[in-house]
Amino acid sequence: xxxxxxxxxxxxxxxxxxxxxxxxxxxxxxxxxxxxxxxxxxxxxxxxxxxxxxxxxxxxxxxxxxxxxxxxxxxxxxxxxxxxxxxxxxxxxxxxxxxxxxxxxxxxxxxxxxxxxxxxxxxxxxxxxxxxxxxxxxxxxxxxxxxxxxxxxxxxx
Length: 157
Hints:
Helices cover 22% and strands 11% of the residues. With 157 residues, the chain is α+β, with helices and mostly antiparallel strands. Strands 1-2 form a two-stranded antiparallel ribbon.
């Protein structure tokens, strides 16, 4: 009964063949288009780099940065944070205000300058040491829930 429904009484192979040819043709055209778009790198800046200061190792909070802790590295423009330091001598001698992980870009918000001997605090730096020169710190009343981040500790002023 199904044989009688086909045109001319024969099973139609023409639609199947035509479908396979068109599918193969569209696959070839898609691959050609994607290779052309990917190869030209229309975004610009694929090979362009800029120098930025990155950490060589994990640097804990309150650590005085030495020359062997940071390095100047060429970074892709698309990955560079605009505030990153461009030379290592600006960073050496400063103190970390937050922990910095290895390979992370060193930013002004992550370091501070201090003239205080850090060893006297035994790793528990008061806010007065962490705040950069020319800035002020003040106390903010917080509840136990809002202070759960752990950044405010007893003894900070």
